[in-house]
């Protein structure tokens, strides 16, 4: 598999969890921005992950159909693995930027020049919720579905879905979380105040016996005061390369208690690049090839340039360790405990 340099030798004994991946992404099927570049290589990516110390992965879904597809992928991987290699778990939910296509319908103005979104009927929404609940319940029973999500709010990309439809989708999925008693896997982009307000409003329904909302705000990249709002609800904060781009990002991560952090990659996105403020802390690197030059044969030795994989979670651990001034081993062990506290033992039940 791909060779690595830097800190990988000293960290060879560490066992990681990538608590946020996107294994359904077309890049792992060799397609980039709609253009085919190489053969599918998800099997190589997962083999490399396990070879480099990743024991478990939580993969995310963005629509109802994707949730079903993800549960099917996980079942297929389990059947092929026969108990060996990395274990993959998943979420069931609708991403905020996808809420319009799921919870609403596009309507045109009388002159046909403008278009807008209008919520689907209550009956249609009830059917969507019922379908999500069924997928989540069946997934929970098998041990494959460990959270509702990825859902939340995204005000940075309102061109895909307006605020009112995002909030409608958020509230609908909070209902699914209440019914299934699965943790929340939250998305937040430039929407922290509204997301906090809605979660606070639902806190009594969502809280566990400790009075905490079981969930994670993943790919966190906002201010420390926003992080503290979410922490006050009992939520964990998920950190990946997009959380570590700037000096301001680094200052935020420095102030979040390690006991409330969870490591993720959000792969194939959110790579840690040499231009990022966090790069100075990275010890583990992998040789790469551009996607046009990559092939399955080269995949045994190379990653794809700027395509993140679960194995890159080691880099996130190294950055957090460097920023907080602690050992990488402590970061990995504490963050893995956090994952188990939130998602349970992450063991298959079938």
Strands, helices and their partners?
Blueprint: E1 16-21, E2 31-32, E3 35-36, H1 42-51, E4 54-59, H2 64-81, E5 87-92, H3 99-103, E6 104-108, E7 115-119, H4 122-142, E8 145-154, H5 163-180, E9 184-189, H6 192-201, H7 203-206, E10 215-217, H8 224-232, E11 236-239, H9 247-255, E12 261-263, E13 288-289, H10 296-299, E14 303-304, H11 313-324, H12 328-343
Parallel strand pairs: 1-4, 4-5, 5-8, 8-9, 9-10, 10-11, 11-12, 13-14
Antiparallel strand pairs: 2-3, 6-7
Describe this protein with a few key phrases.
350 residues; alpha/beta; 8-stranded parallel β-sheet; two-stranded antiparallel sheet; globular
Can you describe what's shown?
Helix content is 39%, strand content 18%. It is of the alpha/beta class and 350 residues long. The strands form 4 sheets. An 8-stranded parallel sheet has the order 1-4-5-8-9-10-11-12. A two-stranded antiparallel sheet has the order 2-3. A two-stranded antiparallel ribbon has the order 6-7. Helix 2 links the parallel strand 4 (54-59) and strand 5 (87-92). The chain is globular and about 55 Å long. The two termini are 30 Å apart.
């Amino acid at each position: 598999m791909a060779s690595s340099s830097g800190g990988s030798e000293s960290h060879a004994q560490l066992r990681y969890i990538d608590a946020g991946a996107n294994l359904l992404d077309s890049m792992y099927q060799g397609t980039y921005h709609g253009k085919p570049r190489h053969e599918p290589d998800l099997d190589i990516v997962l083999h490399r992950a396990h070879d480099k110390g990743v024991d478990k992965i939580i993969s995310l879904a963005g629509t109802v159909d994707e949730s079903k597809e993800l549960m099917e992928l996980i079942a297929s991987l389990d059947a092929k693995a026969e108990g060996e290699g990395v274990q993959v778990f998943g979420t069931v939910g609708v991403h905020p930027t996808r809420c319009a296509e799921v919870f609403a319908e596009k309507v045109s103005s009388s002159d046909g020049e403008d278009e807008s979104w209008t919520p689907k009927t209550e009956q249609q929404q009830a059917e969507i919720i019922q379908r999500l609940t069924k997928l989540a319940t069946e997934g929970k029973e098998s041990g494959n579905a460990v959270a509702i999500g990825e859902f939340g709010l995204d005000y940075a990309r309102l061109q895909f879905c307006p605020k009112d439809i995002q909030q409608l989708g958020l509230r609908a999925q909070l209902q699914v979380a209440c019914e299934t008693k699965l943790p929340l896997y939250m998305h937040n982009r430039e929407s922290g105040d509204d997301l906090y307000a809605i979660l606070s409003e639902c806190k009594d329904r969502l809280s566990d016996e400790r009075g905490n909302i079981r969930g994670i705000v993943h790919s966190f990249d906002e201010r420390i005061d926003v992080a503290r709002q979410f922490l006050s609800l009992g939520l964990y904060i998920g950190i990946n390369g997009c959380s570590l781009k700037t000096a301001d990002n680094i200052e935020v991560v420095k102030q979040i208690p390690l006991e409330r952090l969870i490591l993720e990659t959000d792969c194939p996105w959110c790579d840690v690049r040499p231009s990022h403020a966090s790069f100075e802390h990275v010890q583990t690197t992998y040789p790469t090839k551009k996607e046009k030059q990559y092939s399955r044969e080269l995949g045994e030795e190379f990653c794809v340039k700027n395509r993140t994989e679960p194995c890159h979670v080691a880099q996130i651990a190294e950055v957090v360790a460097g920023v907080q001034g602690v050992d990488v081993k402590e970061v990995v062990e504490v963050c893995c405990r956090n994952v188990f506290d939130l998602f349970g033992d992450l063991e298959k039940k079938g």
